[in-house]
Amino acid sequence: MNIAVTPPVTPEEPNVDLALKDAREQVMKETGSIPTGERAGSRKVYVAGELFPDIRVPFREVAVHPSANEPPVTIYDSSGPYTDPSVTIDIKKGLPLVKSSWQLDRGDIAPVETPREVKPEDNGHASGKNLAPRFDTSRHRVFRGVEGRPVTQYEYAKAGIITPEMEYVAIRENLRREQTAPCIRDGEDFGAAIPDFVTPEFVRQEIARGRAIIPHNINHPEVEPMIIGRNFLVKINANIGNSAVLSSVDDEVDKLVWATRWGADNVMDLSTGRNIHNIRDWIIRNASVPIGTVPIYQALEKVGGVAEDLTWEVYRDTLIEQAEQGVDYFTIHAGVRLPFVPLTANRVTGIVSRGGSIMAKWCLSHHKESFLYEHFAEICEIMRAYDVSFSLGDGLRPGSIADANDEAQFAELRTLGELTKIAWDHGCQVMIEGPGHVPMHKIKANMDEQLKHCHEAPFYTLGPLTTDIAPGYDHITSAIGAAMIGWFGTAMLCYVTPKEHLGLPDRQDVKDGVITYKIAAHAADLAKGHPAARAHDDALSRARFEFRWEDQFNLGLDPETARKYHDATLPKEAHKTAHFCSMCGPKFCSMKISQDIRRDAQAQNDAGGSLAEAEAGMAEMSAKFRAGGGVVEVKV
Amino acid sequence: MNIAVTPPVTPEEPNVDLALKDAREQVMKETGSIPTGERAGSRKVYVAGELFPDIRVPFREVAVHPSANEPPVTIYDSSGPYTDPSVTIDIKKGLPLVKSSWQLDRGDIAPVETPREVKPEDNGHASGKNLAPRFDTSRHRVFRGVEGRPVTQYEYAKAGIITPEMEYVAIRENLRREQTAPCIRDGEDFGAAIPDFVTPEFVRQEIARGRAIIPHNINHPEVEPMIIGRNFLVKINANIGNSAVLSSVDDEVDKLVWATRWGADNVMDLSTGRNIHNIRDWIIRNASVPIGTVPIYQALEKVGGVAEDLTWEVYRDTLIEQAEQGVDYFTIHAGVRLPFVPLTANRVTGIVSRGGSIMAKWCLSHHKESFLYEHFAEICEIMRAYDVSFSLGDGLRPGSIADANDEAQFAELRTLGELTKIAWDHGCQVMIEGPGHVPMHKIKANMDEQLKHCHEAPFYTLGPLTTDIAPGYDHITSAIGAAMIGWFGTAMLCYVTPKEHLGLPDRQDVKDGVITYKIAAHAADLAKGHPAARAHDDALSRARFEFRWEDQFNLGLDPETARKYHDATLPKEAHKTAHFCSMCGPKFCSMKISQDIRRDAQAQNDAGGSLAEAEAGMAEMSAKFRAGGGVVEVKV
């Protein structure tokens, strides 16, 4: 990476120790600070489509030790071409294109003759050495939907058309399970409709019902399609973005790649300050995941940061600017209506959404209804033309436990439900943003109200944080709420990093946030009984029980950290095959004793028999015991 | 600290940066590695008893900036005399005594004429320079209950007697709230009976019903009494202990003090290997929190680590040894019965409890019922004589998601319920240990089964971990489950550190585990609607909204880390009073805009009026809006 405005950055990792450093050096090849290379113990594999043979859906495959006599484990892979050793990464050129020309071939989209020109205000009038370098967009043709033709995934779905994107996500969701394979269904899904196996037709139906979206701007052909919906795997979003105070181009592209490497399914660019436009080009052209933004942030920059000076015209122009760049979803705070603002007056923490407070200030100072609300149909028309999905923002979400589930919050939520129907009527894909700060006993009501008023459009929540007392640990206060609301039906969880409320996340914070939210999302998948979820836990547990340490590390969400922790007390290679760990030492290891018990039972039960027979014998005795009320004598 | 066997340890803190180092140096006075001194921004205060004026119940008081015009916030304080600047700490002498001689004065307890002598096997036959130095126990008189007299808190409670311990914990639980003060009750308690205000009589009733315990060996007079029960604040336990592989006396005392400094309510010493006896003396004599152990660990050491060689006599001797030292509760795996062992044969991870696997192995190899189960009445008699509480161990808890809530686990749980009644009949205090690894949708069943079969004896759970896929992050996978089960009714949560499954926790891991579990416990208190819980959140949220940065840090669970994170991007002192932070910068701060909105509303509403009046005006308009179906014009 060679960008003049900021010196090449050695990625900050303040707490890096030697072990981690080695791991980092291993993955950082000739791409400057951008981490590439396969994940530890993993291999990148692809599955082709059947309806659309050009599709290549990526997975991460973790092989286990031959002694286990088990197939490799397939893991959902959001890391993009960066972890494919056969792809040469050059972030000055951007990623290879994933999307085929099928929409163009159908005549549904067409190149825009005169795309919007970049204006000085798009970058906050930065100039000279303060201006971030422009990404070379000469290869990037700008498209738009053709009048009278379908363009969004929602429109295709409604028309009964299965798109390549739909088959792509169907394959992706099944994690290489066979349709005919037996399927564990163990969970409580609160009325969801999770299928045993995801077919392209099921995807189409879910999108047509508005219960799922594939956020995918036609101008972002680098995206590997993914689906957000209650009946699919729970997804996570990571926020990045420079601010008026900090950050640079290099940092943001690095954070994007870093976040997706660890499992972020989507990334939101929340940049403020100068150079917003140019940095966004770098991000989008190098993003294999959908990118979301909050256009009001840039619109506000264009009017010098004075909320009262915002106009529909400035905002509209910003939407087109970002839609042409390829942003996949916009957060639009159209539910912050003038009459709701007074409902926040007695709150402990007022309005904590930036977008929400900007709009509230505009409404109050003009004594007018929100221009986002008034122009909502026009917004829909613009977004439809590029298939930019709505993420209807919760500008009045609670910012503290005290303010959770109040009338301001729910009045806005009901409005978002009204707007959802309007957006659908215009052919748009929609998801709904949710809180925030909510104590555990009020979380379920959030999900129930959302399902009731927003017609099952996917819910996308920030946390929620379940207490306010732990600044510095809000990734954890919120992971509790995130796991629960994901279980209850939320489709995507927006991560929170340890720096929440305190400062801008650095690289380590981004990783901590992503891993923490992968935990929350997976815990939710397990509890919902998603049929693809438990194989991963079971494979890791078997590795644990059999002391396959390397497998245990590699199957974990963060092999480097697990290995480092293990090696902190037992560093020798021999310890990686030891049948004990430093917690109990060799004499006390319960797993070892438990294995001995099994082996003894086997030996006693049948000198020539198999372990399976021995276990069958034990199971039989156990059944006898239960039948006999606990009096049968057990001889093993 | 001056112990010959291991060199004075400079506490390891691998990730310490300068800011933290300063903070650490500040708190580490002339006590070697033991952290002393008040917590950041805090003052130690005491409240005297009314029934027993000698009682001095400690609290941590956090003052807020005078501009807030608010009283200081009172926080539960488990840190003991280490954070009292008026107490001189000398760990060679041990802590000052808290317990008065009331039991001796009543003739309920008496000195043991010939206490058990320390035997070579108590320290694993360590000798010479391998033997950890003995704590000077000459000041420590050993007591025992007098035949025919009450001795346990349970017996006093049943007899209608309010003890000083009961008043102590009553004061402690109220966090200096006035009995007559208004009380927010907002939560879902699933049938608990949490009172608005805790009286000593309420404590007595709860203990008499077996719904709460005060773990407090009469031989541990250094303890500041605390209560564990569903109708009280949720507590947390931290595990420490050396192992055959690692650790030393210094490390363990340091970890004890460190864990309680950050909020551990109880500490379990899970030492294995040599020197168990001597290290335990150091721990108990320096512990102001109750100390728990698993006596089978030491018993196994005494028979050379061979489970089959365990005998009732060795175990019994170990109970007396530890009871005389002052251990406050014993984990006893008496529910691992011979007939249950085969139920584990088809599990993915077999038996993962160390105690459970030791007993299972003993049962199988002798073809006999567990000697703990067979001798349970005798165990009760021994423990009653010192008021050692039972922590009935869940030796068959699941070690993986796959094994959760299976018949082995629940068969044992029902047995623990039977044993609870026997222990109560003998006058003992009892709590019940719980899992383990449980996906979210199976957590509630654990609590329900426990309440049903164990007669509301307090539940004390490890996590539970809600997924198996994140070694290195199991403090988080388990905090999700811990918060939920705490909400459902669990009285104490046993922490899990990031090193779980991988290695022995160091200092940083202990702190991470404690803070994470303080979060889970507090989130549970909030959700249960505990009346003393929310004041802390609200005080911090007000500080956040008013940009009182120092207050926000000091009111948090970990001021040092919060301050460090803030200063990473905005290090200057001036930024501590800035009305913005680095996340959004000055122009975008939603809280600032929200404050502006409030101020504007005030100005417009009544040029000479108060903010309260302005808000009242806004509230009125909002009511009009709602009544009018959203059509009233709002003028603010």
Automatic annotation (TrEMBL), chains A, B:
<keyword id="KW-0411">Iron-sulfur</keyword>
<dbReference type="InterPro" id="IPR038521">
    <property type="entry name" value="ThiC/Bza_core_dom"/>
</dbReference>
<dbReference type="Pfam" id="PF01964">
    <property type="entry name" value="ThiC_Rad_SAM"/>
</dbReference>
<dbReference type="GO" id="GO:0009228">
    <property type="term" value="P:thiamine biosynthetic process"/>
</dbReference>
<dbReference type="GO" id="GO:0005829">
    <property type="term" value="C:cytosol"/>
</dbReference>
<dbReference type="InterPro" id="IPR025747">
    <property type="entry name" value="ThiC-associated_dom"/>
</dbReference>
<feature type="binding site">
    <location>
        <position position="584"/>
    </location>
    <ligand>
        <name>[4Fe-4S] cluster</name>
    </ligand>
</feature>
<dbReference type="GO" id="GO:0051539">
    <property type="term" value="F:4 iron, 4 sulfur cluster binding"/>
</dbReference>
<feature type="binding site">
    <location>
        <position position="460"/>
    </location>
    <ligand>
        <name>substrate</name>
    </ligand>
</feature>
<feature type="binding site">
    <location>
        <position position="297"/>
    </location>
    <ligand>
        <name>substrate</name>
    </ligand>
</feature>
<feature type="binding site">
    <location>
        <begin position="353"/>
        <end position="355"/>
    </location>
    <ligand>
        <name>substrate</name>
    </ligand>
</feature>
<dbReference type="GO" id="GO:0009229">
    <property type="term" value="P:thiamine diphosphate biosynthetic process"/>
</dbReference>
<protein>
    <recommendedName>
        <fullName>Phosphomethylpyrimidine synthase</fullName>
        <ecNumber>4.1.99.17</ecNumber>
    </recommendedName>
</protein>
<dbReference type="GO" id="GO:0070284">
    <property type="term" value="F:phosphomethylpyrimidine synthase activity"/>
</dbReference>
<feature type="binding site">
    <location>
        <position position="239"/>
    </location>
    <ligand>
        <name>substrate</name>
    </ligand>
</feature>
<feature type="binding site">
    <location>
        <position position="501"/>
    </location>
    <ligand>
        <name>Zn(2+)</name>
    </ligand>
</feature>
<dbReference type="Pfam" id="PF13667">
    <property type="entry name" value="ThiC-associated"/>
</dbReference>
<comment type="similarity">
    <text>Belongs to the ThiC family.</text>
</comment>
<comment type="pathway">
    <text>Cofactor biosynthesis; thiamine diphosphate biosynthesis.</text>
</comment>
<keyword id="KW-0456">Lyase</keyword>
<feature type="binding site">
    <location>
        <position position="581"/>
    </location>
    <ligand>
        <name>[4Fe-4S] cluster</name>
    </ligand>
</feature>
<keyword id="KW-0784">Thiamine biosynthesis</keyword>
<feature type="binding site">
    <location>
        <position position="589"/>
    </location>
    <ligand>
        <name>[4Fe-4S] cluster</name>
    </ligand>
</feature>
<comment type="function">
    <text>Catalyzes the synthesis of the hydroxymethylpyrimidine phosphate (HMP-P) moiety of thiamine from aminoimidazole ribotide (AIR) in a radical S-adenosyl-L-methionine (SAM)-dependent reaction.</text>
</comment>
<keyword id="KW-0949">S-adenosyl-L-methionine</keyword>
<feature type="compositionally biased region" description="Basic and acidic residues">
    <location>
        <begin position="114"/>
        <end position="124"/>
    </location>
</feature>
<feature type="binding site">
    <location>
        <position position="433"/>
    </location>
    <ligand>
        <name>substrate</name>
    </ligand>
</feature>
<feature type="binding site">
    <location>
        <begin position="394"/>
        <end position="397"/>
    </location>
    <ligand>
        <name>substrate</name>
    </ligand>
</feature>
<feature type="binding site">
    <location>
        <position position="333"/>
    </location>
    <ligand>
        <name>substrate</name>
    </ligand>
</feature>
<keyword id="KW-0479">Metal-binding</keyword>
<keyword id="KW-0004">4Fe-4S</keyword>
<feature type="region of interest" description="Disordered">
    <location>
        <begin position="114"/>
        <end position="133"/>
    </location>
</feature>
<dbReference type="InterPro" id="IPR002817">
    <property type="entry name" value="ThiC/BzaA/B"/>
</dbReference>
<keyword id="KW-0862">Zinc</keyword>
<dbReference type="GO" id="GO:0008270">
    <property type="term" value="F:zinc ion binding"/>
</dbReference>
<feature type="binding site">
    <location>
        <position position="437"/>
    </location>
    <ligand>
        <name>Zn(2+)</name>
    </ligand>
</feature>
<comment type="subunit">
    <text>Homodimer.</text>
</comment>
<feature type="binding site">
    <location>
        <position position="268"/>
    </location>
    <ligand>
        <name>substrate</name>
    </ligand>
</feature>
<keyword id="KW-0408">Iron</keyword>
<dbReference type="InterPro" id="IPR037509">
    <property type="entry name" value="ThiC"/>
</dbReference>
<feature type="domain" description="ThiC-associated">
    <location>
        <begin position="41"/>
        <end position="109"/>
    </location>
</feature>
